[in-house]
Design a protein that fits this description.
2 copies of one chain form a homodimer. Chain A is of the alpha+beta class. Chain A is built from 5 helices and 6 strands, in the order ααβααβββββα. The first copy, chain A, binds a DNA duplex through helix 4.
Chain lengths: 168, 168
Amino acid sequence: MARDPAGARNAEEAVISELVERLRSRDWRLTAQRRVVAEVLAGEHVHLSAEAVYDRARRILPEISLATVYNTLNELVAMGEVLEISTGEGPKRYDPNTTVAHHHLYCVGCGGLRDVSPEGLDTLSLSADERHGFELVGVDIVFRGRCPQCQAPATAGAHAVTSESGSA
Amino acid sequence: MARDPAGARNAEEAVISELVERLRSRDWRLTAQRRVVAEVLAGEHVHLSAEAVYDRARRILPEISLATVYNTLNELVAMGEVLEISTGEGPKRYDPNTTVAHHHLYCVGCGGLRDVSPEGLDTLSLSADERHGFELVGVDIVFRGRCPQCQAPATAGAHAVTSESGSA
DNA sequence: TCTTTGTCTTGACTGATTCTAATATCTGGG
DNA sequence: CCCAGATATTAGAATCAGTCAAGACAAAGA
């Protein structure tokens, strides 16, 4: 693993440290593989699929296996450090930004996914009647729509749908 | 868990006719297989997976194939007659109740799913800023919680999680 | 009836994820 | 330092949900 060059202290580094720091302070063994997964996740602002995490992790630690990526992601989710999002299309995405409550905006055209903070959240509720005796744990809101690219003419070469998709 | 004894038919029958009637009046060939799928879907008040639809359909029309069930469900979804819901756990569920806008309440314990009409929907929105240039198409809200059974002690034999699960 | 068109079935196939069993690595005690 | 036990990692097989493709079948029109 490339020893990080001392100079590269930028905004992402802060986030990385934040997540990795939190992990270190748990009773969780922070191995090379696990750190790489955590760093990859925290270092991207789009929501990556397990496969995409694997690709990026392999660039840093070529021996890492897909199974380990899945294991690690599942552990992070279980610890509540990472949020798992299923879009209904294709693989699940993983979102490290769990400190701030947020919801999602999904592009039905290309599968792009971004975080949003809707308004009017506080008034959203289920009447006792509608609650059917459930003990509520949370709520997920997904706005569906069409991103600027996908609204476009779609005449020419469209735009390929890669695992990236994430419009910066 | 015992399904509804013969008495409760009336209301459901109405729904069946309603869906089948709508289908008949489209340019859609209403074959035996397709009608069975539609009836099975409309006849249950829990949201079934494709596999569960297949099981029930086979009890009525044993020769029906799983592929046909999938094809038919996808067609119904494409026509807007049926709503496809992915819970993030396990297979997709299909919900024939598309006439009334509704959202869902999901049990994190057993996977049961029911329709709900939240309050405060009208004030829920994305500011222009948060909309990121998307052309909004809709919004899905899933309340997550624990149904009465799943809140229980969990001491003795718990309750098995079958494909039914539906806490009627 | 013959043809055309559309539907259905079977079974192979893909993609996403999990499981398994063997191997490697870490940690604490002597 | 070396060992034992616990934990992590690996490669690949297995599983699950869903799709695809090719031929069999069935209904509607000439």
